Amino acid sequence: MSMSWLPHEIVYCSNVHPYSTLDGLREQLIKHVLPIKQKRNLNSMALGLWLNQALVNEILANPEKMLTLTKLFEQEKLIILTLNAFPQETFHAEQVKANVYLPDWSDNARFNYTKQLVKIICQYSSLFNNEVSISTVPLGYKRGWCADKHAIACNHLSSLSKLLAEVKKSAAKHVTVCLEMEPDCVLESSQEMVAFFQNDLMIAKYPEIRRHLGVCFDICHQAVMHENINDSLTLFEKSGITIGKIQVSNALQFNNSDRHVVLTELEPYMHSPYLHQIKTQLHNRILSTDDLSPLTLTRLTEQGVSRVHFHVPINRQKLTDTITTTQKSILATLDYLELAKIKPNLEVETYTWALIDGDADSEQLNQHLVSELTWLTEQLAHRNLLVG
User: Fold this and answer.
1) Model's pTM, two decimal places?
2) Which H, E and C letters describe the chain, residue by residue?
3) Residue 250 phi, psi dihedral angles, 5° rounding
């Protein structure tokens, strides 16, 4: 029998909102989260929160301010289900690109930041669910990675798993840190992730790694990698690796024979602070392009199907006559969950609304997010994966 979710457990990631302070977080909760909760007719609502380094520092230094936030959470029946700790620093700068992977897991700063998040979970336990997932960088960006960095990253993650095992005993909070594969990162494919857990983290030998480290499966990312979603999820389950979180996300797709038309249609998407890696499937090969630009589009092979790491609304099958999406990968994931006996956190992550609809005001953005969440809950209900 499959697992099921309550409507309030279906969350969206707050990295769509720009904030780096406690006042900013409170403002976003009032401007977006509470109206979305009301539009969804929910009595309580779970959250997927992004807390960057500056905000983490402020939370730990300001217990008085946190009292105000705690009261708001209690009053509105809000609970934090999952944290997005992938972008550690700013995520709303004019230029983000590969900086989003810094600090990487070979840097003490990444290790310490993650430990600070765990401290916040313990210190403000009433704000958090008893089981909390934290998504993080898949070690780092592949370019410039080396054996020394890899060894340090493994040590950091191993030490973290031991800390999380102690937290489970002392604070009764089960925290799972989930590595999130991404194109062009050290761990970009499901096969690479499984090999990492088996050979480097030695999951079979250390029970704390099996219990407290896992995978954040971002559907957009693995669709861009042209993976068979069912095969990938099955591989993790058979390998005993926890899928702690699934980010429900959608990528761009087009036939390369249409690339000159696509160039015009994608022009509004070109002015982006983020990396938009392109993976082209050509026969039995995957060709890689590091970012979306007019130059890279014109240089693509004339054959094959290209998928772009650009998060677009999950409820869209196509954007234009030539640009479609990878929504089928989302549906394949839900079909898998219909038969599986796992219950990962489900988090919609379309953080690009400012690029897709830059003219949207707060109310319109809320409606965009509600539309995505409604589509997902309907798809879950259709598969008997929703209760209540």
Assistant:
1) 0.98
2) CCCCECHHHEEEEHHHCCCCCHHHHHHHHHHHHHHHHHHCCCCCEEEEEECCHHHHHHHHHCHHHHHHHHHHHHHHCEEEEEEECCCCCCCCCCCCHHHHHCCCCCCHHHHHHHHHHHHHHHHCHHHEEEEEEEEECCCCECCCCCHHHHHHHHHHHHHHHHHHHHHHHHHCCEEEEEEECCCCECCCCHHHHHHHHHHHCCCCCCHHHHHHEEEEEEHHHHHHCCCCHHHHHHHHHHCCCEEEEEEECEEEEEEHHHHHHHHHHCHHHCCCCCCCCEEEEECCEEEEECCCCHHHHHHCCCCCEEEEEEEECCCCCECCCCCEECHHHHHHHHHHHHHCCCCCEEEECCCCHHHHCCCCCHHHHHHHHHHHHHHHHHHHHHCCCECC
3) -130, 140
Single out the residue of 115, 60, 62, 107 nearest to residue 85, CA to CA: 115
For the stretch 340-388, pLDDT in tens is 999 999 999 999 999 999 999 999 999 999 999 999 999 999 999 999 8
Compute how many other C-beta atoms are within 10 angstroms of the C-beta atom of residue 27: 13
pLDDT, the chain, mean: 97
Candidates 291, 272, 380; CA nearest to 334 is 380
Q: Give dist(CA 58, CA 188) in Å, integer.
A: 33
Q: Give the model confidence (pLDDT) of 67-114 as tens digits.
A: 999 999 999 999 999 999 999 999 999 999 999 999 999 999 999 999
The alpha carbon of 279 is separated from its chain's Cα centroid by a whole number of angstroms, namely 19
pLDDT tens-digit series, residues 61-71: 999 999 999 99
Percent above pLDDT 70 for the chain: 100
Q: C-alpha 301: how far from its chain's center?
A: 30
- Per-residue b or e along 197-206, where b marks 16 or more CB atoms closer than 10 Å to that residue's CB: beeebebeeb
> What sign for the dihedral angle of Cα 216, 78, 13, 124?
negative
Q: Do residues 35 and 361 touch, judged by C-beta distance below 8 A? A: no
Residues 6 or more apart whose CB falls under 8 angstroms from that of 313 comprise 250, 350, 356, 368, 371, 372
What is the pLDDT confidence band of residue 33, given thresholds at 50, 70 and 90?
A: very high
